[in-house]
Amino acid sequence: MLQIDHLTTAKAKVSLDNVSFLFEAGNIYTILGRTGAGKTELLRALMGLNPLINGDIKLDKENITKRPIRDRNMSLVYQQFINYPHLSVLDNVAFPLRRQGKKKAQAQALASTMLTTVGLGDFLHRRPSQLSGGQQQRVALARAMVKQSRILMLDEPLANLDYKLREQLREEFPRLVADNQESVILYTTTEPREAMELGNTMIVMHDGEIIASGPPADLFAHPPTKDTASVISDPPISFISGFVRDQVLYFGEGQLAPSEGLQLPPDGPVTIALRPDAIEPGGAFTAKIGLSEFSGSQTIIHLDFDFGRAIMMVEGIETFKSGDNLSISIQAEQMMLFAPDGRNITLRDN
Amino acid sequence: MNKFYHTLKTLFLLGWSIFVVFPFLWALSTSFKDANAITSGATYIPWVDFEPSTQGWTSLFTNGSQGINIVGPFIDSAAVTLIASLVSLILGTLAAYGLSRFEYRLGFVKNADITFFFISQRIMPPIVLAIPFFLMLKELGALDTIFGLVLVYVALLLPIAVWVMTDFFAGIPKELDEMAMTDGCSPIGAFFRVILPNSVPGLVVAGMFCLIFGWNDFFFAFTLTFTETQLLPVSIVSLNSSVTPWWSLSAFALISVAPLALVAIVVERYMSRGTMSGAIR
After folding, report:
1. With 0-12 CB in 10 A as exposed, 13-18 as middle and 19+ as buried, what is A103?
2. CB A237, CB A273: distance < 8 Å
């Protein structure tokens, strides 16, 4: 169990601001946030690489805030595949075990087993520079895991890999870390899909703070704040300004009555959040097509309304001409409403 | 077009090689001549153009009017250069690592200023330092000693080592040190176990610079020694008399260049190796 209380780092471009959380062993926590949200800062602060100006880190109730880096019982995999260039793949993975005081033969035997687990059993005596990017990251992963640390931290480990390798390692990840049941695994990413796929618990960070946490599906369905909704939505969620008056929702020239699957809050300004699946072709609204792009088997269309911009997604590859008008409908049951202070105030009929 | 460039490149390299190697061949040829062969016009090939003589070489190992024994100066030069280079490399590497990894601040003085302070030692002309060094060594009783010269040479070579190594360490990602510490090393352990083994090219370059500057220095070797200690560059001057012994001078020149050339040939492969490849992507 890892407990962090009020972690705060010195003011900088990215800094932590009073971050507290309780991490349970055996869980995979995916930390999602945009670049500069403070994810790496949090991992580095936990590791002792970035100094704290306030806060405590407790591992199994023991305060380790002041412990030297090497005594923290933590492992870190960097976004850049960092390996020791002067050592073979086998010695790279044996390196932390040797520092733990294990005999060379024992360390190499354990390292060899770990390298076989990550699929590098045939590359033991190569240098990291002789491996592909994906293999180099596997070496880094093996070196982090072989220590059996209580805390295994992975800082965007797939970010520098090409798409195919990323998909492959993402699929393999649960198997690779399966042996680390006693560990707390922290995995940072900027990709909502990755965060939701890999984590038991998703933590959303923004501006150096944890702004939401919980099971990925729940967070996606009911983001507690506008910032959370923004961070966890991919393709991007669209926000439109509107207001409620006499139980009717107005936005630009459009309006929606409460009978359409959405309960409306009391009169006042609101921010309407539209995920791409909340907009469908054909309907009462007219939008101008801004940009149309293909994403795998889907087409993403950027729309300009009189009340703002939004993104629509349709299955299949469709050709839309930029500048044309398109009639669309908005699914009220897919809509979310946020108060001016950013709170989610969506109320469904059910 | 490619063939044309290839031919042009080959011709240029050939020309350049001749330009570089020719003085050595000339010196080698001259070292086997005697006074007659030297004054009878340009000759190149022994036994064909002139009758070779070993006088130039034997005179370097003879005491007295026939020559000068260079074994003593050679050993002195080697000792001073090696010790001073080694000390400078050790101190310079440690200083450079500190400057590249930790932030120092003393008033307005920061890391860049400290680095410049080191380099600035090489900016001023040596003559400025001659008298202070002379007086300091005199106070220490270290004039005309190997110890005194080592002290002075360390002061002269340290800036070179700091300069080269600071630049080299700046190219090694800090994440490598951090990774070593997360893997169980202390900061000093990270330096010795990870950073230093990956710094061989930098160490070789810095070491070569130290050796070259130390080995070739004439000025301080001349001003700070008298009779007890003599370095090669000074003893070569003492060969000169009313008749310049070109044969001995040529042999001497080849002997003085040989150690550095040998070292350069041995360490060249370490200089060109990109050891950081595979460290970080």
Report:
1. exposed
2. yes
Q: Give mean pLDDT, residues A91-96.
A: 97
Give the ipTM of the model, two decimals please: 0.82
Domains of chain A, CATH where assigned: 2-232 (3.40.50.300), 238-348 (no CATH)
Q: In chain B, what are the domains? A: 27-67+239-275 (no CATH), 71-231 (1.10.3720.10)
B263 touches chain A (CB under 8 A): no
Q: What is the pLDDT of residue A158?
A: 87
Alpha-helix runs per DSSP H in A179-248:
192-198, 216-221, 226-232
Nearest-Cα residue of chain B relative to residue A158: B281
A210 pLDDT band, cuts 50/70/90, is very high
Name which of A88-92, A300-304, B129-133, B163-167 the model is least confident about: A300-304
Res B21: pLDDT? 93
From the CA of A249, how many Å to the nearest CA of chain B? 51
Q: Give yes or no for a contact between A339 and A329, defined as CB atoms under 8 angstroms apart.
A: no
pTM of the predicted structure, to 2 decimals: 0.82
Cβ atoms within 10 Å of B272's Cβ, excluding its own:
8
**Nearest CA-CA partner of B245 in B6, B19, B70:** B70
Residue A253: pLDDT band (50, 70, 90) is confident
pLDDT of residue A151: 93
Is the separation of the CB atoms in A154 and A138 below 8 Å?
no
| Closest Cα in chain B, distance from residue A85 (Å) | 5
Q: Which residues of B touch A84 (CB under 8 A)?
A: 176, 179-180, 194, 198, 279
- Of A120-134, B173-187, B257-271, the one with minimum mean pLDDT is B257-271
Q: Does B178 touch chain A (CB under 8 A)?
A: yes
Q: Write a three-state SS string for B41-59.
A: CCCCCECCCECCCCHHHHH
Is the CB of residue A92 less than 8 Å away from at least one CB of chain B? Answer: no
Residue A317 neighbours by CB under 8 Å, 6+ apart: A294, A297, A299
**Which residue is closest to B278 within chain A, CA to CA?**
A129
Predicted pLDDT at B13: 96
| Option in A81, A99, A128 nearest B184 (CB) | A99
User: Which of B175, B197, B275 is facing A80, going by the closest CB pair?
Assistant: B175
